[in-house]
Amino acid sequence: MPKPISSSLLLAFTVLSLGIAGCTGSRPAPQEQNPPAQTQQAQKVEASQQDQDQEVQMGQEVFNQLKAKGEIVESSPLYDELKPIADAITQAAQPRYNHPFKFYLVHETQPNAFATPGGNVYVVDSLLYFVKNKEQLAGTLCHEVSHTIHHDTMELMEKQEKIEKRELGAAVLMGSTRAHLLAIALIGKLHSLGYSRGAEERADLTGSDVCAQTGYNPWGLVWLFQDFKNASSTEIPQLLSDHPNDQNRVDALKRHFKENPAVFQKFNPDPKSGTPINIPKHAEEVFMH
Questions:
Q1: What is the pLDDT of residue 266?
Q2: Containing structural domain, residue 228
């Protein structure tokens, strides 16, 4: 997981510190070769806290960017349909993550949903008009929450970071935090995050587990994938990151359901059993400022 300061900048600070120590002619105090177990544990806890702090910072930066663009919906009748599902997901998923999950509607034309580090989940208003039932919506949101649980976005941004080391170091020294820089990069990738197939399938399976805990039928995610598979390429929205019309993901979910009958056997696989979602046409929206 990423640290608050990039490895290149940390290395520069280390070299500089060593150079200063060498110029003074002083020798550092002897260090224990093997720190006590308690010290090692404390170091691990501190590193974990730093990772979590970095996630919160990055999530807040994304929130600030979306708010500044006037995309976050503060109030709307659409929340009446979203909130009960979001509350159920939060209750089921919260023990798996160290920061509170929060769900926000955002206004865009393309149906989508995305989660950012720190626990924020953004649901595009047009998605509520796109899904056929509450189970499909719940499955989508459980999938996105699972990306946060697995820290997939942070790992992805770490891999795709294209800022040169010198530029990143200079930007940090000039006052831009790494979280801010990564958040700006993430804003441009929210609609096309290239998670690996493994990350997508893992989020599918964890998402189905979370769905089962909420009481919403986890088959909703399968139904949504099948709808995408049957749709023409021009009708498929950029949703769930990696074109979820991949039959492998549907097969993996079905296999997961079959291997865990105690959890999934009670749920009806028939799409006709889905719960209709009642969305008012042209619902009024008030935006955050």
A1: 97
A2: 61-287
Best-predicted range by mean pLDDT (18-27, 107-116, 177-186, 262-271): 262-271
Residue 6 is assigned to a structural domain of this protein: no
pLDDT digits (tens, 9 = 90+) for 29-79: 445 556 666 665 655 555 455 556 889 998 898 899 999 999 999 999 999
Q: Per-residue pLDDT for 210 more than 70?
A: yes
Q: Is 33 a member of any domain?
A: no
Q: What angle do CA 7, 10, 12 make, to 5 degrees?
A: 110
Number of independent structural domains in the chain: 1
Strands 286-287 and 120-124: unpaired
- Domain for residue 34, yes or no? no
Whether pTM exceeds 0.85: no
60 token code pair: 């807040």
3-state secondary structure the chain: CCCCCCHHHHHHHHHHHHHHHHHHCCCCCCCCCCCCHHHHHHHHHHHHHHHHHHHHHHHHHHHHHHHHCCCEEEECCHHHHHHHHHHHHHHHHHHHCCCCCEEEEECCCCCCEEECCCCEEEEEHHHHHHCCEHHHHHHHHHHHHHHHHCCHHHHHHHHHCCCCHHHHHHHHHCCCCHHHHHHHHHHCCCCCCCCCHHHHHHHHHHHHHHHHHHCCCCHHHHHHHHHHHHCCCCCCCCCCCCCCCCHHHHHHHHHHHHHCHHHHCCCCCCHHHCCECCCCCCCCCEECC
Q: Which residue has the higher pLDDT, 174 or 118?
A: 118
* Backbone φ and ψ of 202, nearest 5°: -65, -40
What is the reported pLDDT for 182?
Answer: 62
